[in-house]
Amino acid sequence: MSRFFANSYDYESGSSSSEEDLLSTSEEELMSSSSSEEEQANDSFFDESESESDVDSDGSGDRPYGPDWFKKPEFRKGGSTGANKFLKNADYSNSEDSDDEGRKVVKSAKDKLLDEMRGVYDKIEDAEMTQDWITILAELDNMTRLSTRAQQQNYGVPNIFVKVLAQVEDAVAATSLQDINNKAVARAYNTTKQRVRKVARDYEQALSSFRENPEAHADDEAVQDNNSVSTFALAGKKTADLSSMATASSESDFFTALRIVIDSRGKKGTDFQAQIKTLEELLDIAKSPYETILAYLNLIPIRFDSSATLSYQPIDQWKASQQDIAKLFDTLEDSIDAYHVSELAPHNDFIEEEPQPNEQGIKQVLGSVYSFVERLDEEFNKSLLNTDPHSSDFLDRLKDEQGVYNLILRSQLYLEATSSDSELERRLARVLTRRFDHIYFKSVKLVEVSESKAWKSLREGAKSKVTPLDGEVDESYTFGLIDTLHKMLSTQKDGAQRRRAGLYQIYFYALNNQFEKAKHMLLSSHIQSSINNADAPLQILFNRTVVQLGLAAFKLCLIDDCHQILNEVSTSTHLRDILGQQSLQRVAANNATNPGGASNEQLCLPFHQHINLDLIDVVFMTCSLLIEVPHMAAFFSGIKVKRIPYSQKSIRRALEHYDKSSFQGPPETLRDHVLYAAKSMQRGDWDKSVEYLKKVPTWSLLPNTAEVLTNLAHRVQVEALRTYIFTYKRFYSKLSLLKLSQLFGLSQETVVEVVSAIISQYDIKGRLDEESKFLVFEKGYEITKLEEVAVKLAKETKYVSERLNEKKYVGSSRKQE
Prior knowledge:
Layout: H1 17-21, H2 25-32, H3 36-41, H4 50-53, H5 73-76, H6 109-129, H7 133-152, E1 157-158, H8 159-173, H9 183-202, H10 204-212, E2 222-223, H11 231-236, H12 242-246, H13 251-264, H14 272-285, H15 289-305, H16 315-334, E3 339-342, E4 363-366, H17 369-385, H18 392-398, H19 401-418, H20 424-439, H21 444-456, H22 475-489, H23 495-511, H24 515-525, H25 536-555, H26 559-570, H27 575-578, H28 584-590, H29 613-636, H30 651-660, H31 670-682, H32 686-694, H33 705-728, E5 734-736, H34 737-744, H35 748-762, E6 766-768, E7 774-777, H36 785-816
Parallel strand pairs: 3-4
Antiparallel strand pairs: 1-2, 5-7, 6-7
């Protein structure tokens, strides 16, 4: 009945607005298309008296009724023209087209529903003859849904529904599982047996009445089930009071309220807070571990769903989710011999019945405990990305990382305890990757602290088969843990997961001063050959690993290796982007046109995982200083040297700008300090060069600052000596090695070693005397500084004259045209 005509209708006393609201949209349209006479004629389907369906005939037949109020009088009062069909108390006996074959019969929603139920009864009867239990199961589910629709519309429980239940019960009783050879049919038979038993329990009295007197239920009239109303019916009522159900103490009310919550999930206008409150109250009245597990499996995802539209889950809700997950683990660990929550468990349509125990006597509940931990970690990561990293709030939030890591380790141990050996590696892949993700960027000392706290948070006697802890958490355990995690993940079929695990291991070794081993791992993995085809998060991790490998080489004063590794990455114009260290807002702006790519949170890292960009710049420029300044001196002295790749951040480019500028102030920025150190090295003033470098405050970010600066100063002395020899060899016939030793603060043996290397490497026409006291230069074809300037000036003059001649030629050509 359409609500548009609600004020023009004469309602019966049995109708109410609340019942009207229960009609679905499609059923409401069907019912509004039928007349009131058709509805009353079919009321024999219900337990309603004839007196209620009688129509008051008070001579008002000409009065417009229902939707006919807008028709003209001639259409309402016409003799036998079809218009009178729509008038109240109209006489249809003289209608000319009442017997027309083309006349459409409009059925009410009740009749259509009843016809569907009869069709289900016939299909089950046919399937029973062929032992087609797959069809019987499907049709039983269909009948259950039809019964739900009937109860939602206050039709009661049709007799045909009770008849189908009795029919399926008899078929199940008459069939033996041993007579069924097909596995699929046998599974369908077992499922049908459990399902019909459950449904029959809700309609026990109606079934008993039907079996005592089947003839009394021959007509498809509604019967009243004085048992508790079906759970499916309650799920459809909008007026169900969840709070009152949750405070009830009976088992049926617990599952009834839980079913309502489950059925309402995902629907528009769902009140998440009401659902959370209901489930919290259900936890208080839960009597068995099974009920507690079900309540938590539904409560935790609803907490996450309640903040799905927010940038991250509010901290109070996040902490509540963390506590719920911890309590769920407590329940699972207490009842681990009876219940297992597994992603591989079969689906249970009837939550009121506990799952059947398997061969080991374990009842498996469908669910994923680790997915809750994973979602909790993702929300934690989002909150860090949305918090100002320079505020105290970020530091307070970062303290919760240990709690997340504790749950990750706890989920790993639970999966180990509930998984068979054949599926252990596959089920542990995600949790091991998540555990790796929390420790690969930390130093050994920090990992030791984190691991110690995580193991202490577990129950006494907790052990791991994959990452066992024997004794105390120390450096050997930490490196062994990294190797074990990589070994487990390297066997996975997912190529991206294997490469990610490999990069995690390389990063950790490079960070903790294991350069040679990390370099060997990177070269042997061949990741660099296919990284351009990888997804964006994996490319970011690769870039971070390369940078960390370069910093590891610099810590060991391996200047050439560091310069070679960092040359391509550090010279990028978007260094912050390729390292995943841009802000979340910038990522969202840049990624708005690429909805199919990675999520914004995957393209940026929390601040505590960042690599300092100033440190990368200073390290690269320092390496460039130590390599390019001697190289430039050798080149300008006429020595044939190999070409070094030219980059925007190289010291050579900075020196060119410095020489062209008319004014040079004191050093202010980090680059200025390195530049002035280079100028001092060119003059042979190594002491001043080291002084400029030591004033760079960024060195304090290195864990072994004092050792690095000591090695760096020695390398500056050596390179300053080489630069001096290349620059001034044309002005000397011989150089005293003792004087060079005193001038550059090096031992005489070191000076001899450096000079010998220069002579052999650059093919300089010079030699050491027999007693190694002097470096003797043989005069060759070297030009003096004045001659060098003259040659340069001649080249510039020639270039200018060629340009002028070219302009004159172009001008004359235009005049001739």
